[in-house]
Amino acid sequence: MIVVVDYGVGNIASVLNMLKRIGAQAKSSNVITDIENADKLILPGVGAFDTGMRTLRESGLVDVLARQALEVRKPVMGICLGAQMLGRRSEEGVEPGLGWVDMDIVKFEKREGRKVPHMGWNQVSMPVTYNDHPILSGLHDHSRFYFVHSYFMSPDRAQSTLLTAEYGQTFTAAVVKENIFGFQFHPEKSHRFGMQLLRNFVELIK
Q: Does 80 qualify as catalytic in the annotation?
């Protein structure tokens, strides 16, 4: 069973609908025992970083999520804001992030010819290191995903970058740290590529 964490911020219905389309057993929940009993966890999120972190902390779920991710080592997927919250901090606000991935969240600088937020379809590229990673099975360089964001993930180490994309500069579109994955784009809105990515996550062995 996959649990999509319901902490009051996120595009939960769309994520559940896409999981249903690929035949995955999934539900949304903010119940601690459901999170403890889940095989995998998805942390969604839309909106501002500080709002997301405050809401997550007020939900009382941070400790149980940390145990499942860092001690039990269940596969965890962060989506959009949920991915950014995996880091330490964001230029968007002052609240500390979860700190599970060594990265900060930085803002796209406004430049001539580049609109912020970055919104729409964009191709991604795979660093050679992760060409055969099971989370990317069936995908290829230049697979297309749907983005909506003004801030992006900036990991400390190159090996944390799972995917990159171009938007007036090369930026990290996805991160990985062992069992923890963060995707800046929305796989639930990315049609066949998003379906494949979620299918890969469902099929990951703990």
A: yes
